[in-house]
Task: inverse folding
């Protein structure tokens, strides 16, 4: 039973609430609990956890919400009492601390500390860029712990900082040391003569703690953020900090570390470092340098970089680390044992993955899976700090739960020979992670032993002897439990590799003459030199613990208790930014591939046959196809149900309406969306096995699509009519019209569709509401053949007369054409191009290329337009039909300008409105179709390729031309107009695609 408590206007940091959630979850009787701020993003997390309630959904981003799954109602009082105690303890721990007074605005913060020179920002990323911009305007350097800041914003902020002589560290900057003061998740490191510049995080922590334990120190460790060395940002912070550290006489040795940088940025950084006056050590993770240069050293591991820095400071070689353990039980290589590695952060995980790949001699690195740095042949390296594991959950540095779960899974795998993991000490980390993991480790050791297996637990403890958790205590606890504890990550990974009978090479490097560039170093700004030479004066936005640590080191700090403005929903912005900057796939290029498929398509009308002849699903039992995404019969609007009645009477499954409805309600008939069987259907889309359908083949790709024939206007099946007249017309179409057209088409060897469309669009058709030119062009193709066919003269006359009278006849051919074209295009299975739009009177559904067959739905709208005499909007049925497939190929409402003759009919005011509509559609499409030129649009091609990202970004939904059915079956068509899809469909689609590509909020 879900119970909800909403604390209005009670804002707390997400990390604090994660810790609180963990604490509450341990209460006996609490099956599941989540405590978060009710931001839109967090509401989604509640939903994913099955904890969404009406009270939650009605809350705002400034409300703290507790949702607990409990059976005993009285337990809620216990939960709320513990929550109150938690916050009381937090409040009490802050009382009496120097400078602990909080403020709630920039003005008050600056008033309290007017000479502040560093803003530490740990608020939601969508707002972090705005606050960082404000800090720069106030003359402050910025440390951005926040992530989810766009790369465009990052670049703009860093360019602005550079112009002002300031620095932006981050975003997603987890670690920093300024004048010996730890910032964010950092260890207590001895001040010294070594300077470090890196992305910041576990890599800097590993470097600084090794240096500290070797007896040397670090004065400044500046985090740049992981994207600083990208092509887009260009190493702005890195370059500025190199200049500053070179001008800082107290720095004797400089270390520069980075995950793989962009090639041109790496070259720029290397060129700058080649003329540095001080000894420089570089580590570009993933590269395996073969040599050093004089005073310019190129390292492979963090361990090597740290020991080399210490050696350079001392002038004597630092000893290599050793691992003292009994190797007699290590596995031989032919045992084929695997390593399972679980890390707190990306850099250490990346280093482990690199070394294991080296030992496995992988010529081509395996593809990364979601959350994995390595996953190959049973070996895995997981970055548990990846977003996929931390969405709505505490970071693995502070919560052992996920690592425990992983270790349990690892031991269940009989191939596992080693479980490798790190323990991160320092500020912000768990107070006793070793102790928290030991019960699980001991239990798993016993389990493996009972099964006659040996699983080695290998660990590295990243910390110093001044860290409050106690380095030696953590090491000793692990050793006493039989864990092999290594001084550094490299040694731990090597030991793990050796434990399965393998190793990697790390040959001694020769020192070659330094190759210098012609770069002229820039003079560092006075503001940066000041930041590196004084204890920072900090305004802290976000996590209070960051302020408390800085105060312990004698810094002046003001705590800014920031709250999200207006409770704004930023999830869609994050999603769009992810897709825009996703580096695993060029989405724009993928979209262009989809469009290229559309342009290259060659649809050909191949035949006209009974549906069951080409749709295998219709050959067994009673099957009816319907328009739109899947819908149950009881949810179909009345006209669609009426069309089903007509289909039952047509197929002679019943001989009266009452029996037909009983059959439809019985469950005996199977309903399938047309789209699921390569078909499309207009309005209700109702198609039964013996109805005549066109067969259109896209000969470029060899795929087919099917659609029933157009019945004309008025009381017709597709609009819900099912009288005897309607049924008899369908039977004539089955027995006479269909076979006649099928025979003619076959004798012609098929009819190319593109030339018909090209002719008709130049003659004023848009192929949804106006098809007269295309219908006549089709008649022109088949009439000569029909006139010479051996058939009854009356039948011949009736066929030609029907084709001549049915102005919309080509619509159904266009629909099958659109289906054949887009089904081929969506085989690309990448990108955000909309490949189908349809509606069933209950829901509107879309598909996008990158999500294959999945539907994304929202509540359907009711068309707006002009009505036949005697009817108005009150009579209209919600939107129905698969005919919006025409808009996905760029015609219909998307090409409104092509058909000025119908703009008034479909609700547009006239030519100017049609032009405005089509022009607006170019805002959400990515190309023009060169096959379909529109003369009265300055001979431009029809707009093509609806990009779901653009729809969401701009709030413009595609316009769809459509007929309007009466809401009561039997009346048929009562008007025509336009309708727009609900934007919710597109929002769901891009969210799902982003998730598929690895995005987590």
Result:
């Amino acid at each position: 039973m879900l119970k909800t408590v909403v604390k209005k206007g009670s804002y707390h940091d997400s990390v604090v609430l994660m810790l609180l959630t963990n604490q509450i979850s341990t209460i006996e009787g609490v099956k599941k609990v989540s405590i978060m701020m009710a931001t839109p993003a967090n509401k989604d997390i509640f939903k994913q956890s099955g904890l969404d309630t009406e009270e939650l959904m009605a809350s705002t981003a400034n409300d703290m919400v507790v949702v607990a799954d409990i059976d005993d109602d009285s337990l809620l009082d216990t939960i709320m009492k513990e929550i109150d105690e938690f916050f009381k303890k937090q409040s009490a721990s802050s009382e009496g601390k120097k400078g602990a007074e909080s403020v709630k605005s920039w003005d008050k913060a600056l008033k309290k500390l007017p000479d502040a020179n560093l803003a530490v920002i740990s608020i939601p990323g969508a707002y972090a860029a705005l606050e960082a911009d404000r800090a720069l305007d106030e003359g402050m350097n910025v440390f951005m712990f926040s992530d989810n800041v766009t790369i465009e914003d990052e670049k703009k902020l860093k360019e602005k900082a550079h112009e002002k002589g300031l620095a932006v560290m981050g975003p997603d900057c987890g670690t920093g040391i300024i004048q010996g003061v730890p910032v964010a998740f950092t260890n207590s490191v001895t001040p010294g003569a070594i300077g470090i510049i890196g992305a910041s995080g576990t890599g800097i922590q590993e470097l600084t703690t090794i240096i500290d334990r070797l007896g040397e120190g670090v004065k400044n460790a500046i985090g740049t953020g992981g994207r600083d060395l990208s092509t887009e940002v260009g190493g702005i912070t890195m370059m500025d900090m190199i200049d500053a550290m070179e001008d800082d006489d107290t720095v004797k040795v400089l270390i520069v570390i980075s995950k793989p940088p962009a090639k041109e940025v790496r070259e720029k950084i290397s060129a700058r470092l080649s003329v540095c006056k001080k000894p420089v050590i570089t580590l570009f993770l993933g590269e395996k340098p073969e040599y050093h240069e004089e005073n310019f050293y190129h390292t492979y591991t963090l361990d090597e970089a740290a020991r080399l820095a210490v050696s350079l400071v001392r002038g004597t070689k630092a000893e290599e680390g050793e691992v003292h353990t009994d190797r007699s039980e290590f596995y031989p290589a032919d045992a084929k044992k695997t390593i399972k590695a679980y890390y707190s952060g990306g850099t250490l995980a990346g280093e482990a993955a690199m070394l294991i790949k080296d030992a496995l001699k992988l010529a081509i690195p395996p593809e990364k899976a979601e959350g994995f740095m390595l996953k190959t042949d049973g070996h895995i390296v997981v970055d548990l700090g990846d977003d996929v594991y931390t969405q709505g959950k505490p970071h693995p540095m502070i919560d052992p739960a996920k690592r425990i779960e992983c270790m349990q899974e690892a031991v269940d795998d009989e191939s596992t020979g080693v479980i490798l993991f790190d323990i991160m000490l320092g500020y912000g980390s768990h107070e006793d992670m070793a102790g928290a993991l030991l019960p699980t480790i001991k239990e798993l050791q016993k389990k493996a032993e009972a099964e006659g297996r040996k699983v080695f637990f290998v660990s590295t403890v990243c910390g110093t002897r001044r860290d409050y958790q106690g380095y030696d205590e953590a090491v000793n606890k692990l050793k006493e439990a039989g864990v092999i504890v290594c001084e550094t990550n490299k040694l731990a990974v090597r030991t793990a590799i050796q434990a399965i009978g393998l190793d990697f090479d790390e040959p001694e490097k020769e020192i070659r003459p330094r190759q210098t560039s012609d770069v002229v170093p820039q003079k560092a700004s006075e503001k940066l030199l000041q930041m590196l030479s004084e204890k920072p004066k900090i305004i802290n936005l976000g996590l209070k613990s960051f302020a408390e640590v800085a105060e312990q080191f004698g810094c002046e700090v003001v705590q800014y208790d920031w709250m999200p403005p207006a409770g704004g929903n930023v999830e869609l912005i994050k999603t769009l930014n992810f897709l825009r900057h996703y580096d695993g796939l060029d989405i724009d290029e993928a979209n262009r591939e989809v469009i290229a498929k559309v342009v290259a398509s060659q649809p050909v009308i191949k035949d006209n046959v009974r549906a069951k002849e080409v749709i295998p699903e219709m050959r067994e039992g009673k099957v009816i196809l319907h328009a739109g995404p899947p819908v149950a019969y009881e949810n179909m609007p009345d006209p669609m149900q009426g069309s089903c009645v007509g289909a039952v009477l047509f197929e002679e499954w019943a001989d009266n309406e009452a029996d037909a409805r009983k059959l439809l309600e019985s469950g005996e008939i199977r309903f399938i969306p047309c789209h699921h069987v390569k078909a499309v259907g207009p309005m209700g889309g109702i198609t039964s096995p013996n109805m005549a359908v066109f067969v259109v083949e896209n000969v470029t790709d060899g795929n087919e699509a099917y659609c029933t024939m157009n019945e004309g206007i008025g009381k017709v099946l597709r609009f819900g009519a099912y009288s005897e007249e309607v049924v008899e017309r369908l039977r004539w179409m089955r027995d006479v019209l269909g076979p006649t057209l099928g025979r003619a088409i076959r004798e012609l060897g098929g009819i190319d569709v593109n030339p018909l469309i090209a002719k008709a669009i130049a003659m004023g058709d848009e192929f949804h509401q106006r098809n007269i030119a295309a219908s006549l062009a089709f008649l022109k193709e088949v009439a000569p053949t029909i006139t010479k066919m051996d058939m009854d003269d009356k039948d011949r006359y009736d066929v030609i007369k029907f084709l001549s009278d049915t102005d919309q006849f080509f619509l159904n051919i266009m629909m099958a054409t659109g289906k054949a074209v887009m089904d081929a295009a969506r085989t690309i299975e990448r990108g955000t191009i909309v490949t189908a739009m349809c509606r069933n009177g209950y829901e509107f559904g879309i598909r996008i290329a990158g999500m294959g067959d999945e539907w994304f739905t929202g509540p359907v709208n009711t068309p707006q337009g002009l009505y036949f005499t005697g009817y108005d909007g009150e009579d209209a049925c919600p939107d129905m039909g698969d005919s919006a497939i025409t808009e996905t190929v760029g015609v219909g409402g998307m090409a409104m300008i092509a058909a000025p003759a119908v703009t008034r009919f479909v609700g547009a005011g006239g030519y100017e409105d049609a032009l405005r509509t089509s022009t607006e559609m170019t805002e959400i499409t990515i190309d023009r179709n060169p096959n379909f030129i529109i003369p009265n649009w300055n001979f431009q091609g029809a707009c093509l390729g609806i990009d779901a990202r653009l729809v969401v970004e701009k709030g413009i939904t595609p316009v769809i031309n459509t007929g309007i059915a009466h809401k009561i079956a039997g009346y048929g068509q009562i008007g025509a107009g336009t309708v727009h899809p609900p934007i919710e469909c597109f929002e769901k689609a891009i969210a799902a695609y982003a998730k598929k590509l690895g995005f987590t909020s």
Observations:
- The chain has 33 helices and 40 strands.
- Residues 565-569 have pLDDT under 50 and may be disordered.
